[in-house]
Write a structure and sequence with these properties.
Shape: flat
Strand order of the largest sheet: 1-2
Radius of gyration: 20 Å
Distance between the termini: 35 Å
Length: 116
Amino acid sequence: MMREPLLPRNWIKLRTLYDQKLTGVGFIIPANHARDLERSRSPRCSFIVDGFDPTVARTAMNTARILAQRRGMEMEAGYLAQRGVSPNSVPGIDFRPQVWFNPELDSVKFNIHSVS
């Protein structure tokens, strides 16, 4: 179930939400974010995640990384367009992952269950 996003205005409020178990993740976007963008600087954003459940934490981290990369690509495309450069003229990476041992990534076959 999706909840409304919580928008704390500082680290203390984020920590309070975390301590109250109202959130387990948070993006930290600094106050100088817009200024850095205007000056063609790369703004720093932080992502905080509760590592209690490593699987959930890993999923959250990967999702945050993808969102940040996507936004970065959008910003780069806009930056290039403002300068009359087509984003299609900039070479990219042709990424083709392969899984050799377990192509289905099926963990059930590789879990060893214990009996107590």
